[in-house]
Amino acid sequence: MAAATYETTVVMGDGAAIHTTVTSSYADVHRFLMEFGAYNNLIVGLDAEWRPNFQPGGGENQIAVLQLCIGHRCLVYQIIHDVGISSTLKSFLAHPGHTFVGVGVSKDAQKLLHEYGLRVANPVDPRYAAAHWLSRPDLLQAGLKSLALAVMGANIDKPQSVTLSAWDAHVLTAAQVTYATMDAYVSYEIGRRLLSNNYHGCLGDNDVSARHRDMGILFVTNGMLGWNGGGRLGKLFKPLADKLEE
User: Fold this and answer.
1) Beta partners for 66?
2) What angle do CA 52, 53, 59 make, to 5 degrees?
3) Three-class SS state of 38
4) 137 and 131 in contact (C-beta within 8 Å)?
């Protein structure tokens, strides 16, 4: 039997205290999401975890944990142990105004659709924006740890023992909850800095021109990176997207 829903506070390296809900209950997922029900254009950190398959030639296991982070609120949802899926979660993920940010988020979105029938309407991989705004094409291949250092100046710890742990366990360890919260929060914070209308004030000493600031505002208005939405920004970001997909 899965563990009961509980609340915990995870303190990040930057001092941010993240209030995290850990649950395998669709009813508690609904309650969490209703905190944000009045908002139509949210930036949301999204990540997913699953137990690794070490069998040669074996396929990937299904998603066990879905993480969502909005500001200093995080949901660690043990979706694999729930008896149903909240219609509120379906609507939230499919909301065309919300932007779901994460490194490799397109893969998470595909797995959520194929394994749980959950459609993520607007997934955005922040590597494209970071590579452009910071003039660092190497960030197209970056993992979350490298991206956090480049965008936030933060060193985050991602121990392999937790990365490769049993995410389908009925009761997550404290280390797993901390790791899951950190991934979702850092994804959110990177997205906030790169995609919000005033991201140019969040990048510290990085030189971002007025032209880039205007484009940043535009692609928040569009709710997606240009390569995904077409138009003028599509022409700008398509080469970056193609390179990452190779």
Assistant:
1) 48, 77
2) 115
3) coil
4) yes
Q: Per-residue pLDDT tens for 3-19?
A: 689 999 999 888 889 99
CATH number of the domain where residue 58 is located: 3.30.420.10
Q: Distances from the Cα of 81 to the Cαs of 165, 167, 203, in angstroms?
A: 17, 11, 39
Contacts of 209 (CB under 8 A, 6+ apart): none
CA distances to 12, 143, 215 from 62, in Å: 28, 21, 37
121-137 as b/e: b if 16+ CB within 10 A: bbbbbbbbbbbbbbeee
In a domain, 1, yes or no: no
Q: Is the pLDDT of residue 197 over 60?
A: no
Beta bridge partners of 46: 68
**Residue 120, domain extent:** 6-245
